[in-house]
Design brief:
Number of strands: 7
Radius of gyration: 19 Å
Helix content: 25-40%
Structural class: alpha/beta
Length: 257
C-alpha cells in the first residue's frame, strides 16, 4: 500500500493508517500482496419504472448489465443498487487477483450530510463528527491506492462518477501537456467500459488524458483484462511521492523558464 508522506488526513489521522485498517483484504493476505485498488462506478442502477409511466409492462425495469444482477442487487424497496454490484465485484477482485479492492463506502469517512445526521443523534459529551465531500474522499483514496479502477456499464446512472472521474484526473495532473512537476502515473488509473456503454465525454477521455483505457464484453472478460493490467504494474514499487502537491513545487516557476 502507498505509504508516502501526504497531507491527506481524517480525524487527525493519516489516511494511509485508516485505509490500512479498513480496506478489505484478500483471503490470503500478507505484506506481499498489500496491493490496494480503489474501485469507482455508479451506485444507482437505471430504473425504467422511475422514468416511464408504462414501464411496469416490461419484463424488468433494469437494463441488461455485465455487473448488475436484478436477483441480487435490488433493495427491499425495489431500487436498483449498483453499489451492491460494485461491492460484489470488489470481493471477486480480492478473491481472484489477491488484492485489496474497495469502494468508497467500505471506508468509514462520512459525507457532510452523513456527518450532520450523526451529529444530531450523538450523546452529550461526544465530539462532533466531521464530514468530507465525496470528491475529496475519492481524491484521497486514489492518492493512496496502487491502482484506481473506474467502471462504466450500460445499466448504471453515471452522472456522479462521471463528474468525479474528471475531478480526479485533473487533480492528479493527467491531462496531456499539463506542465505540473508531480502527477500520479496514468498507467495506474484504468477506465473500463462495457462495450455497450455510450458516452461521448467518457469515450474521448484517452484523447485528453494519459490513462489506461479498455472495453469489455462480459464480467469474465473484464476480469481477464484487469488481471493483465495488474500484471503490468510493478507490485514491488510504491508511489512514495505522487499525491503531494506542495504549493510552489507543483508547477515550475517563471524563473525556471
Amino acid at each position: 500500500m502507498f505509504d508516502g508522506e501526504t497531507n491527506f488526513r481524517y480525524d487527525n489521522r493519516p489516511l494511509s493508517d485508516i485505509l490500512s485498517e479498513q480496506a478489505p483484504t484478500p483471503p490470503k493476505f500478507s505484506a506481499h500482496n498489500d496491493f490496494t485498488v480503489y474501485v469507482m462506478g455508479p451506485y444507482t442502477a437505471f430504473d425504467a419504472e422511475r422514468a416511464y409511466d408504462d414501464a411496469d409492462k416490461l419484463r424488468t425495469p433494469f437494463q441488461d448489465d455485465p455487473l448488475f444482477d436484478p436477483d441480487r442487487h435490488v433493495t427491499d424497496a425495489g431500487k436498483g443498487d449498483m453499489e451492491r454490484a460494485l461491492r460484489d465485484f470488489c470481493a471477486e477482485l480480492r478473491d481472484r487477483h489477491n488484492c485489496r479492492a474497495f469502494i468508497a463506502t467500505d471506508i468509514d469517512i462520512p459525507t457532510h450530510e452523513q456527518a450532520a445526521n450523526r451529529n444530531e443523534t450523538r450523546r452529550d459529551g461526544e465530539p462532533a463528527v466531521e464530514g468530507v465531500d465525496p470528491l475529496a474522499q475519492s481524491v484521497a483514496f486514489a492518492a493512496h491506492s496502487d491502482a484506481v479502477l473506474f467502471l462504466f456499464t450500460r445499466g448504471g446512472l453515471t452522472t456522479g462518477v462521471g463528474a468525479e472521474t474528471g475531478g480526479i484526473l485533473g487533480e492528479f495532473h493527467l491531462r496531456r501537456g499539463n506542465p505540473a512537476l508531480t502527477h500520479k502515473p496514468g498507467q495506474r488509473i484504468g477506465l473500463y467500459l462495457d462495450e455497450h456503454f455510450s458516452s461521448a465525454t467518457i469515450d474521448e477521455l484517452p484523447k485528453g488524458y494519459d490513462v489506461q483505457y479498455d472495453s469489455f464484453r462480459s464480467k469474465r472478460s473484464l476480469h481477464r483484462k484487469v488481471r493483465n493490467w495488474f500484471d503490468s504494474l510493478d507490485r514491488e514499487t510504491r508511489d512514495t511521492d505522487l499525491p503531494v502537491f506542495v504549493p510552489g513545487e507543483t508547477y515550475a516557476s517563471d524563473a525556471d523558464d
